[in-house]
Amino acid sequence: MNHTSAALSLAALGHDTRLTIFRLLVRAGNDGLNIGEIGQHLAMAASTLAYHLKTLVDAGLVTQERQGRQIVNRVDYDVMHQTVSFLTSECCAGVKLTQEDAA
């Protein structure tokens, strides 16, 4: 994961509604949820959910699969783990100024 894709993922999660949807989908696991089920859990209109889900899908955090007339939404756990790993990859590594940084 690079800075651009990490920024896209974090921006998508930086909205209260999208973060709430994403956390619900994390709890749902690999079975995922369709828009109607998400709406029931969160008391949100389908149009609102569709708008926010598109942002999560565009960021690669959520995948959608058509099953008949329904679209099942699932977290892409690889992307989720990559995002968390990006944030923590240099944890406690230290920060030192080089001569190039000081110039």
TrEMBL record:
<keyword id="KW-0804">Transcription</keyword>
<dbReference type="InterPro" id="IPR001845">
    <property type="entry name" value="HTH_ArsR_DNA-bd_dom"/>
</dbReference>
<feature type="domain" description="HTH arsR-type">
    <location>
        <begin position="1"/>
        <end position="95"/>
    </location>
</feature>
<dbReference type="InterPro" id="IPR036390">
    <property type="entry name" value="WH_DNA-bd_sf"/>
</dbReference>
<dbReference type="Pfam" id="PF12840">
    <property type="entry name" value="HTH_20"/>
</dbReference>
<dbReference type="InterPro" id="IPR036388">
    <property type="entry name" value="WH-like_DNA-bd_sf"/>
</dbReference>
<keyword id="KW-0805">Transcription regulation</keyword>
<protein>
    <submittedName>
        <fullName>Metalloregulator ArsR/SmtB family transcription factor</fullName>
    </submittedName>
</protein>
<dbReference type="InterPro" id="IPR051011">
    <property type="entry name" value="Metal_resp_trans_reg"/>
</dbReference>
<keyword id="KW-0238">DNA-binding</keyword>
<dbReference type="InterPro" id="IPR011991">
    <property type="entry name" value="ArsR-like_HTH"/>
</dbReference>
